[in-house]
Amino acid sequence: MNSLQQLQSAFARFLRSGDPAIAAAVASTPQLAAQSRLEIYSSGYKARLREAITKDFPVLRSVIGDEAFAVLCLRYIDAWPSMSFTLRDFGAHLPEFVARAADIANPRFLGELARFEWAFIEAFDAADVPSIGPAAMGDIAGQDWPAVCFEAHPSVQALVIGFNTLQIWDAVKTQQPPMHPVERSESAGALIWRRALTTVFRSTADDELMLWRRLAAGADFATLCAVLADRLPADDVPVRAATLLRGWLAEGLISSLRVQQG
Amino acid sequence: MPPFFSVRYDCASVSTRLQPPLGFGLGLRVPYYETILAESPGVDWFEILSENYLVAGGKPLYYLDKIAERYPVVMHGVSMSIGSADALDRDYLGRLKRLADRVQPRWISDHLCWTGVGGHNFHDLLPLPYDEAVVAHIAARVRQVQEFLGRRILLENVSSYLQYNHSAMSEWEFVSAVAEEADCLLLLDVNNIYVSAMNHGFDPVAYIDAIDVSRVQQIHLAGHRNFGDYIIDSHDQPIIEAVWQLYGHALRRFGAVSTMIERDDNMPPFAELLAELERLRRVAHDALGEE
Q1: N or C: which end of chain A has fewer CB within 10 A?
Q2: With contact defined as beta carbons under 8 Å apart, do B154 and B118 qualify?
Q3: pLDDT digit string (tens) for B161-203?
Q4: Hey, which bits of chain B come out as E strands?
Q5: Which of residues 89-108 of A touch B (CB under 8 A)?
Q6: What's the complex ipTM?
Q7: Does B3 contact A at CB distance below 8 Å?
Q8: How far apart, in whole angstroms, are the C-alpha atoms of residue A81 and residue A113?
Q9: Is A128 touching B (CB cutoff 8 A)?
């Protein structure tokens, strides 16, 4: 264990899995044995990561309880060790991890709840880009509308919601009695984004979420109308499309629009 | 030399490499943003935790920009992992440089430690073995970082809870050798010296007396938790009396050095930190007045 690489790899194995090989390289003193000295680092490592996800997923913790959350944290730390320079990113895989967990009750609901909480983290420090308002629609000539494309504000997170997740989140945040998860008969959506410095959210109908996702992926206005036409009578399409678009612009969800050439 | 490390920094002579002291500062922490903006408290400068601002936008950068307009700011990082066997993280260094371009900090510091290996980050300031090979390894990396950032960096001595059997020199010999070979500056954490001295049984005064005066650009003070058999550098308590005394000794050796108080947990009302900052001014005044 003479090279720095070997020493640090052994230390890392101790931190991650308790492999005791590193102890032979560590000095014991009458005051404190090598093993106890090492355990200061291993307990600190797990505590720091647990603190990061406890801060980022307070509602998930409240719903499953402190004990189950502590177990979940330890398993997540083992499964997804931090690969980022910042603890800010550590919880990014927790929603997926929870959703696929085989031994917790209702993992699909809990994964959705975790995804909802993580969306706030993503919106909170997304890039500062000005939004455009509905007035921008007036700058587009009538014949150009089919080719108009949009750029979503970088903070916008669009999620499929299959349970009463927003109600449960709200009940925890406002300290109401706990609610049981109930799967919705039809899925809906949620939009989470930042207006100036404040993160906001609202629920959406299923068709709005689908259309928003197409817009954010770069679809032009003609394509968005065609998507709606699969669901609505042809006469209703222009009004619904214009209403949704005006709403998104008014809410600050769009940072630019342009006419796609050729 | 690849393009990444192509920027040359200005190699000032020994006598001019230290910047003039900024006075007495605090760590910039979220709970105090609004108070600082509303009351413009008498803090000479703020130290930021660089990683908290290596984000795309939102509140962190909004408040940082506002506060940097009013106060001198220095950047203090925890993720350079200068002592790791892994390659330097160029993405991280690029982000750090862009933040420095935005904030225009008086200086940039990180820790003499390693924080991860094999791509894994343990988000801790992990201890290094002290020998010539490690000194050479770190010094070469510091020089690369300094060339990339276009400035000398400061390295901070960390609190440690273990030492390696095969270390061939004392911690203060190691710190001094890295600074000399890398031609970097030092951020001397007086609380860390105290914590490590108690954890390993060395004389903290001997440590301070061995450090080259011309390399100490900044001093940290903080509180810790004493568990009897060992002390943890927790930054969640007021500074203890023995650390104040050690700081006084340090100033009598180093002269006026920019000093700040780190508080990262168990956050008190801002007025309590201002009171601790006032004590810092008095201790420094008394120490320097004795010369």
Answers
A1: C
A2: no
A3: 999 999 999 999 999 999 999 999 999 999 999 999 999 999 9
A4: 24-27, 45-49, 73-76, 108-111, 114-117, 120-126, 154-156, 185-189, 216-222, 225-226, 231-232, 258-262
A5: none
A6: 0.94
A7: no
A8: 22
A9: yes
